[in-house]
Amino acid sequence: MRPTKALVRLGAILHNLETAYRYAPGSKIMAVIKANAYGHGAVEVARALQSYDASTVPAFAVAFFDEAVQLRDAGISRPILVLQGTTSEADVIEASEKDFWLVLNNPLQVDRVLRSDTKRRLRVWIKIDTGMHRLGLDEADLENTLQALRALPNVQNEMVLCTHLACADELNNPLTRQQVERLRSCAAKFKLPMSIANSAGIIAWPESHADWNRPGYMLYGNSPMGTFGGNTKDLVAAMTMSSQVMAIREISAGEGVGYGHDWVASKRSRIGVISIGYADGYPRHAPNGTPVLVNGQRVPLAGRVSMDMLSIDLTGFDDVKIGDPVELWGESLSVDEVASFAGTIGYEILGGLTGRVPITYLP
Ligand SMILES: *Cc1c(COP(=O)(O)O)cnc(C)c1O
């Protein structure tokens, strides 16, 4: 069997959740497990988090309906907030039956709730566009919207006002403070609880901490701040992408490696091969020199990443042999660093895992 597997330590996710609470002790946490829990396996992660009491993990958030349905079908019983909200009136009925909380992102989604005739009461969050300019109601529409929703018998009174930060990972960007102020003034005017912070807000912007915070990326132990460590060293990477050296060969000076011969040996070289490639989700744009850990030592990528394997330059690592352990990213090599070599962010690597690599769960 191919030795390549993703090891996911569920205990690390709890540790990171506790870290999020330490950053913002006064806020409740909505654990964001969209995109298959950022590649970690949404059902397994939700099961593990649901084993903690409801005050630690009161609710989950996913991007869209199908993700919420998958979790319910798998027996996840805590409330699930659907960030993108409904796409049909049937979604409103299903949300009330399955205890999905709905984000109302635009007047159409508000109208669907106003027209609905649900038996159970709906929980809704109202999103305000404070500057991301993707989703959300205009501030000017809030008063009428609230009036209409508050008059409905089937909408719970405990509505939450939320917004999403566009630039929270940039410590000098003034937009974050403006977004926070806009939402705070709406919430104060209408006496509503609020939710603003994603992971970067939790870590870097205390003023964004509110009744509910919505951490995603940091729960998996990675830094949303584009740095490797810094003030986020109390996070532990939950996933280690591991494999073994599958082949080693020596090549002469002047010989190239892999498709297009993007890497050419400047001297006699020892090339190692690892069975992971872009069809698994390893980034194809990772260039020569991207670090890979072999026996805990950093070894540079050599040549283009192929569909099923990649090559590394083991020249000078004479003790490395076939079968030796490899870490592509994890506790000792952050996925954010690998991502920065590949010109992307760790979110894209984790969210882009294809499911071809099996996940092994550890406590
Ligand atoms: C994805 C998402 C989050 C979580 O963001 P992280 O940067 O992963 O913490 C929070 N809120 C909304 C609306 C999101 O779409």
Which tags fit this structure?
single chain, 363 residues, alpha/beta, 8-stranded mixed β-sheet, 18 strands, 21% strand, binds pyridoxal-5'-phosphate
Report on this model:
With 363 residues, the protein is an alpha/beta fold. 28% of the residues lie in helices and 21% in strands. The protein contains 11 helices and 18 strands. The strands form 3 sheets. Strands 1, 10, 13, 14, 15, 16, 17 and 18 form an 8-stranded mixed beta sheet that branches. An 8-stranded parallel beta sheet has the order 8-7-6-5-4-3-2-9. Helix 4 (65-73) links the parallel strand 3 and strand 4. The longest helix has 16 residues, at 175-190. The chain is elongated. The mean pLDDT is 96. Bound molecules: pyridoxal-5'-phosphate (PLP). The site of pyridoxal-5'-phosphate has 13 residues, from helix 9.
